[in-house]
């Protein structure tokens, strides 16, 4: 089980899940199986790495969302509100797999919470084709550090912390008008080759490649407009 505050799962809300399966299956070598409802789990070497879900409301953004582990989603949601964040979607059960919630930090960046049931989260990470990092692009990194530091202190600053979660100004990579947001990073063996594959599959490159403290990064969108990053370490 993942410790509180550690990124433990990601999902994409897409207009066309089948198109997403073709795109990500080719890009990362994922295979897929039905998870619950209209959602599918992506697997790498047989282990779960992400979910693709059908976007039921066209007004919702087409996005990747990162989920942070929590032992008690209800309690964490209350702490988020006390700290100046918002609960976008109150904790709800997911078919016996666990309990999920959506929240936003004081600057409006949206993230998820996951209280594990039978589904613990990533079965594999930190390798090509799997989750590698979550970067928060914030207007005010001091505000972000204060909020997340109180919310997930042990994961970020405790002994032996390996948070897989960074915080930088949004203007480091994006135009000033870009709202604060999380960007999910997936590992790749070769960043240049990965962005070539993204373009060939109908996606596009929006930033980079550039060198960050944690590796070589390119920000891309898939063939339906969901943004993510590829990370070569």
Automatic annotation (TrEMBL):
Keyword Hydrolase appears in the UniProt entry: yes
Coiled coil: none
Signal sequence segment: none
Positions of the VOC domain: 6-116
Record's keyword terms, sorted: Hydrolase
Pfam families: Glyoxalase
InterPro entries given in the database record: Anthracycline_SecMetBiosynth, Glyas_Bleomycin-R_OHBP_Dase, Glyas_Fos-R_dOase_dom, VOC_core
GO MF term list: hydrolase activity
Protein's UniProt keywords contain Hydrolase: yes
PANTHER family, alphabetized: CONSERVED PROTEIN, GLYOXALASE-RELATED
Name assigned to this protein: Hydrolase
Organism: Streptomyces aurantiogriseus
Lineage, opening ranks: Bacteria, Bacillati, Actinomycetota, Actinomycetes, Kitasatosporales
